[in-house]
Amino acid sequence: MKRREAGELERAVLAAVSSASAPLSVSEVLPMLDGAPAYTTVMTTLARLADKGALQRIRDGRAYRYQLAAPADAVDSAVTARRMGKLLGLGADRAGVLARFVDELDPQEERLLQQLLADRRHPDGPAADPEALRPAAGRTSRRR
Amino acid sequence: MDLMLVAALAAALGSVLLGRGSTRLVRALPPRLAVPAMTLAAVLLAACTVGTLLLVAAGYALGWGPIAAFGGIRPDQLHARLPIPGALAAAAGAAAVLLLLRLGFRAVHLTVAAVRSARYCRRLPGRARLVFVPGDDAVAVSGRPGRVMVGRGLYRRLDPVQRRALIAHERSHLVRRHHAYLQATELAIALNPLLTPVGAAVRFAVERWADEDAVQRIGDRTEVAMAIATAAVRAARPAPAGAAGAALAAARSHTVGRVQVLLADPTPSRPLGPVAAALALALVLLLTATGALDLHHAVEAAQPAAH
């Protein structure tokens, strides 16, 4: 039998599951695939796709049924997000491969920034303390 | 006191001082200068620290029985010229070996992370640099090419100018190869733990650099500050459980500092601190080189048979 590439079977299984209107069991996916893969192979592939976040597992008696974890166009995103989590688990911030736009704030810092945003949205509202965020007092204001 | 010991102490002292001053130093220069300068300083100081430790160890070890015999060195002459206590030399040698091992482990870790990240970037859907993902965060991931991932939740909450600021910021990370500076700094810290505070300073300066690039792009400091503030306040909502949440919680906030700098009037840079730091660094380099030469001459003088 011709050996499949690992990704090829995953794509076929994903296509089979996404074409169905209801969650599928392993034995229902099996006849939908070309090349008569083994039952256990398909079961493993389904489980792996679920681990990757592409499929959602639903318990049905003693077996599982599988459906797409998200609408078809969003499956890529779900997989992306799951891989992202793994990358972060590796300490990607510290390993220099990843730069976040913003980091976590403590409650006081969050209040400061919220205040600043509120002031800007309602410039005529009660004057709260934009200077609190300025590092040096006494400079002339440049805010619009 | 011996020159090599002076050099080793100067390198260690310099590392402590650079660590303590790093936050102020990176703020005293424009970030596009601060990042390379601070990275270079950390790498050089780390190399000097381990280099001088190795010199001290070698100064003693070269006069040790079998090694001295192999090199045709007369131990009494070498020790007369370089009076290094054996215990001190052994401690210096052990420290150098431990630090080099640390460097090795860290290099492996960084390489694995870089390979995984590059693979991750290749597998992201589409060919465009920008990828939208679920979530309320935005990150630049290094790779060839690197990718910018923007959470749809965050994107929706920003106004159009702020969106452009966000994307310009993340693109800057990739275009300026900021991850290379971060990785070099991490390696320097692995080689010399006294430099640990420099890591946070360089991460801050890298974010500032990207912020300034975003300002260049959209031409408005306040809008960039508002984009950061808006994103940060949203991101502070309960973080998702799991690995991502843990990584978020571990980070220390640079965000408020960045907003502060953007809202302040642009200050003329006061390079007094950086100039002093550069002079101190040059002194450490000079002492290290002199120490190496000193060892070289001492060994030559103790080799009557050679040449």
Automatic annotation (TrEMBL), chain A:
It comes from the Bacteria. Pfam families: Penicillinase_R. Residues 115-144 are annotated as: Disordered. The keyword Transcription applies. One of its GO terms (molecular function) is DNA binding. One of its GO terms (biological process) is negative regulation of DNA-templated transcription. The keyword Acyltransferase does not apply. Keywords: DNA-binding, Transcription, Transcription regulation. Coiled coil: none annotated. Belongs to the BlaI transcriptional regulatory family. This is CopY family transcriptional regulator. It comes from Nakamurella aerolata.
